[in-house]
Write a structure and sequence with these properties.
Subunit structure: Homodimer.
Family: Belongs to the tetrahydrofolate dehydrogenase/cyclohydrolase family.
Radius of gyration: 19 Å
EC number: 1.5.1.5, 3.5.4.9
Shape: globular
CATH superfamily of the largest domain: NAD(P)-binding Rossmann-like Domain
Bound molecules: guanine
Strand order of the largest sheet: 1-11-8-7-5-6
Helix content: 40-55%
Pathway: One-carbon metabolism; tetrahydrofolate interconversion
Distance between the termini: 50 Å
Protein name: Bifunctional protein FolD
Largest sheet: 6 strands, parallel
Structural class: alpha/beta
CATH topology of the largest domain: Rossmann fold
CATH architecture of the largest domain: 3-Layer(aba) Sandwich
CATH class of the largest domain: Alpha Beta
Order of helices and strands: EHEHEHEHHHEHEHEEEEHEH
């Protein structure tokens, strides 16, 4: 059997197009564009790539992009003052502070300064709390993107066994909350989990978010399971001096056993920014009353 390939790139393109339509409707109704502010501190090359891509896709979706770039040596107080200014700016519906921040800054303190109603990343403790108790709020983009792919593939998730590998605040924990809210039986596995292959073998849904190249092997996967690979790992390629991207799942192996698998690249990755745009638009509608 060969698994179906879950085309996150195509799904993300469709989602961006839908966001674009709703962004135009918002502008017609509110008399202004929905606005997303992105703050980048320092020159981390990967962060610069993300931020450029976010800005470009925001504009392409018909929303206003406000980019704030601050030098690495910016004082924390200055960043907090900028966040507070964005909190009260009526043109800004969503605020994202790109992580990681320079070492001298307290990330939790910075995130806690964002108005939770503009927290389109869903990283604020109030957003995490709202998700945990089932209140309306914002959900981190990557796990919400994974859930959209799962629901598109499986329709109802109710009663299914789901294993999330990884317990980060950004992916693993919110992913588990989302699956629980869909009435899955959820296990969160991590680096200390005993008999991980056995735990994964029970799962109808596997979400791998550990950052270890090709860790999840074919013989860990229940036949027919739906496998969502959040990992993006750069490893040496066969050709000398070259590298290639792989996920946390042995893709070729999983394809022979699973029912459906997300590829890397082209699976979960493109969903993150598409969901961010969706969250920013939702923020605009909610904040405009
Ligand atoms: N750094 C890497 N991914 C992300 C993200 O989704 N949001 C923020 N704020 N920082 C990141």
């Amino acid at each position: 059997m060969t698994a179906a390939i879950i085309d996150g790139k195509a799904f993300a393109a469709t989602l961006r197009a839908k966001v674009g339509e709703l962004a135009a409707a918002f502008e017609a109704k509110a008399g202004r564009k929905a606005g997303l502010a992105v703050v980048l501190v320092g020159e981390d090359p990967a962060s610069q790539v993300y931020v450029r891509s976010k800005g470009k896709q925001t504009v392409e979706a018909g929303m206003a992009s406000f980019e704030h770039r601050l030098p690495a040596e910016t004082a924390e107080a200055e960043l907090l003052a900028l966040v507070e200014q964005l909190n009260t700016d009526p043109a800004v519906d969503g605020i994202l502070v790109q992580l990681p921040l320079p070492k001298h800054m307290d990330e939790q303190k910075v995130i806690s300064t964002i108005n939770p109603d503009k927290d389109v990343d869903g990283f604020h403790v109030i957003s995490a709390g709202r998700l945990a108790v089932g209140q309306q709020g914002f959900v981190p983009c990557t796990p919400l993107g994974c859930l959209m792919l799962l629901k598109d593939r499986l329709r109802s998730l109710s009663g299914l066994d789901a294993v999330v590998i990884g317990r980060s605040n950004i992916v693993g924990k919110p992913m588990a909350q989302l699956l629980l809210a869909e009435s899955c039986t959820v296990t969160i596995a991590h680096s200390r989990t005993q008999n991980l292959p056995e735990v994964v073998r029970r799962a109808d849904i596997v979400v791998a978010a550990v950052g270890r190249p090709e860790m999840v092997k074919a013989d860990w996967i229940k036949p027919g399971a739906c496998v969502i690979d959040v990992g993006i790992n750069r490893v040496p390629a066969a050709e000398e001096g070259k590298t290639r991207l792989v996920g946390d799942v042995d893709y070729a192996g999983a394809m022979a056993v699973a029912g459906a698998v997300t590829p890397v690249p082209g699976g979960v990755g493109p969903m993150t920014i598409a969901v961010l745009l969706r969250n920013a638009l939702v923020a605009a509608y909610r904040n405009a009353g």
